[in-house]
Fold this protein.
Amino acid sequence: AMPSRAGTQDYAAIVVDAQNGAVLESRSALAAWYPASLTKVMTVYITLQAIEAGRLKMDEELTVSDNAASQPPTELGLGTGDKITVEQAILAVILQSANDAAVVLAERLGGTEEAFAETMNKMAHALGMENTQFRNATGLPDPDQVTTARDMAVLGKALLDNFPQHYHFFSARSFTYAGHSFGTINGILSRYPGADGIKTGFTCGSGYNLLASAVHDGRRLIGVV
């Protein structure tokens, strides 16, 4: 069945213990859902892996293609031929959910966004995200791009486990590009005690999505709604 907010469930959710992956709460956690901008967590995950493998550097300057510049909002407002560093692109993707910056990273790592989506699917498979299918690097609407709350929790845990040294990106409150300062659109960072990342998403088809992590009394949880 195609995911739909008008379907049987009005929302899907899961809460897991970040340390051992134990499921603490679950509601329709295996229901198909459009990932919207939670897709970008995978885009960043693969970017961080490339950095750790030495295939990419944080300060490498990337040139914005026509395709990247033409992505619909939310965007940083990049123009064709503009330059942006990998680090700035990562921050733009996480804090502003910038579609243009996500495609810049995807094209640098995959050549084309389509090829990068294949890499995303291979990674999803490797991480055990059993019901996830990616078609683009942004989460812009595609009927074939689906995930589940459980699979997004798996991705969140992998991010924390494998790239703790880069998790600060998801906690950042602002970044600067081309002389302008941009804040985060992730309200949970300021509204929920102990919350320190990860990503929000919204499309008409998906509704509001959130993949978040928080620490209370030394215990870290990952939640997806």
Remarks:
- The first helix runs from residue 39 to 52.
- The first strand starts at residue 13 and ends at 17.
